[in-house]
Specification:
Blueprint lengths: L2 H10 L5 H11 L12 H9 L1 E6 L2 E2 L3 E3 L5 E2 L1 H13 L2 E6 L5 H6 L5 E2 L7 H4 L3 E2 L5 E9 L13 E5 L4 H7 L4 E5 L2 H9 L5 E5 H8 L14 E6 L2 E2 L4 H17 L1 H8 L6 H10 L9
Length: about 290
């Protein structure tokens, strides 16, 4: 094992996410920074088409949302633009939701999916989630109610998103009654209409709402649970494209790109992004392995 690998292992030893181990594995495999050549059917198709099609959220500020002109913007669209720039093609963004994002990838409607998806083993059986993970978040609620513990949700109607993994745990472990909606806009509308007493979702999304004047008086009162990494994905079997994306994720962490985008969109730096940048910033891919 080279000295660079020993250094990286020391830097990632204290990290508690699966992404740390995955990051070491990616670099040990000799994957570079994403700007190098990569060949696969999808890459050839993208270059021939002259356009990369990426599935992103359009209702999940600041990760993917519509600006005043109706354009999809946000952290993940900016990351998608990075990929298109590396490939030297135009970018087309396709709005997806939790219930259809993997299907869009399977069906070839999109080439790449960067859509706030929690990395889970069952999802890895459907799509090819790329290591290392690029982001992370946990589960919490948005409410005006007086909830101090998760168990306080027993019997309460709680808004959720169709296909989101938080629903089952909130229902089965804490006894809430989930009222599921297709997207966050519908769920938040129902919440304001008092059709639910709380909205269960990513704490990162809830934090972004708490800074909005429209949500003054609302809180995120519970301790965050189930902190879990997010994975971007390519279609199963697209190994060369997955390898290229692994390199790009390493470069995003190494360069501090994720931290830069958090600042751009008014977010506090997340512990995950800070840890990953600290783990990679001294890595020099030119060092002989």
């Amino acid at each position: 094992m080279g000295s660079w690998m020993k250094t990286l292992e020391m830097k990632t030893r204290g990290m508690k996410t699966q992404a740390a181990a995955a990051a070491v594995a990616v670099l040990a495999a000799g994957i570079g920074t994403g700007a190098g050549p990569a060949s696969a059917d999808v890459i050839a198709e993208v270059k021939e088409r002259g356009k990369l099609i990426v599935g992103v959220k359009a209702d999940y500020a600041p990760y993917g949302f519509l600006d005043s002109s109706g354009k999809i913007v946000g952290i993940e669209p900016d990351l998608a633009q990075d990929v298109a720039d590396v490939l030297g093609v135009e970018l087309e963004l396709v709005p997806v939701v939790s219930s259809n994002r993997m299907q869009f990838l399977e069906q070839g409607k999109i080439d790449l999916m960067i859509a706030t998806m929690t990395d889970r083993n069952d999802r890895r059986e459907v799509v090819q989630i790329v290591d290392p993970n690029y982001y992370s978040s946990g589960t919490n609620i948005l409410t005006k109610g007086n909830f101090a513990n998760w168990e306080d949700l027993k019997g309460a109607p709680v808004c959720g998103i169709q296909g989101a993994f938080y629903n089952r745990k909130t229902s089965e472990d804490f006894g809430a009654t989930i009222v599921a909606f297709k997207g966050t806009a519908e769920a938040l509308t129902a919440l304001k209409q008092n059709r639910c007493v709380a909205f269960v979702y990513d704490d990162s999304f809830i934090v972004s709402r708490l800074g909005d004047a429209d949500w003054e008086g609302w809180t995120m009162p519970l301790p965050t649970i189930d902190d879990a990494p997010w994975g971007l994905a390519v279609k199963k079997g697209e190994d060369a494209f997955a390898k290229m994306m692994s390199g790009m994720i390493v470069d995003w962490h190494m360069s501090g790109r994720i931290l830069e985008l958090e600042a751009k969109y008014g977010l506090e730096q997340t512990p995950f992004a800070k840890k990953m940048h600290a783990a990679f910033r001294d890595f020099n891919p030119s060092i002989e392995r």
